[in-house]
Amino acid sequence: MKRFLVLNQLGFLLSLFLLITHSDSTIAYVGNMPVVPPQFDSLMTNTDGIVEIRGKAVGFTHVELINGADIIGDVDVTEKGLFLIQPTGRLMPGEYHFVLRAIDEKSGCSATSLQTLLVSTPEQGNGKVLALVEEPGKAHRLISSQKTFHQVSTFPEREFAVESIIFQKGKLTVCGKKPANMQISIISDTRTIGSGHASDGNAFCVIRVRAMEVGDYIFRVELTDVSGKRADMISLPFSIRNSAGVTRQLYRAGYPVNTIIVRRGETLSHIAKRVYGSSTFTRVLFEANRDQIRRPCEIYAGQEFVLPLIKKQ
Length: 313
Known about the structure:
The chain is mainly beta. It has three domains: 26-142, Immunoglobulin-like; 161-256, Immunoglobulins (Immunoglobulin-like); 262-307, no CATH class. Helix content is 12%, strand content 43%. It is built from three helices and 22 strands. It is globular, with a radius of gyration of 25 Å.
């Protein structure tokens, strides 16, 4: 009898713990089996330009993709708990905040994802679709494939471009170029965190004091005219791995790129051999960094050069 009372008390304490640590919106119980919140895994754009979102949920449940108050996609989950869901139609340029809802159709119980998926779709021909998973108590995480610039020719010239983002000791600096007499706004998660206007030139540098934790971010940089009408927009990924150090990322044509700092006494051929294993790629380096190099024989210690990816034959 005493053993039965002890087991009864343990069962009560376990139930109390589950009640305290999981709200009804987090986990719904169907008998003894929970409907756990679904999760986002990855996002990609198919050859038809349609966004595809992969994730995990309890097997044989039904998952809905929700944007605000609208259900914009739904799918049945496989036995293994995997699903692929597509929003209805193409996403227009802009930002979206998606959540998932898993439904056990036999019982009617449901659970909404703790995660929110921030999706930023660019203007046509101006970068890739970016997706960032946000979850309370965890670092933000990019789940879309954002490749570094891989062309071996010169970078395409644009009047409007973000060239670097730097975060150091609580200070965020975003620099680039834009047409004269145009306004720049820097937006993160629907909030404008900085703006700049320069009538006497094309270069801009917006500097703001901002607390940022370790994790992944998406910055949207908008270009507007004097009337406030948006003329262009760029979405850029930015990752912080050490909040106490310096995080510096260069961009070309709307894509993050790898870079290298020139050492004392180095030549372009030395760098080509050090990075690519052969000095035959010296010309590639020169073409990718024409904005900094007047002649291939004139480079200096401390310069930061872009490293285009070379496709292996």
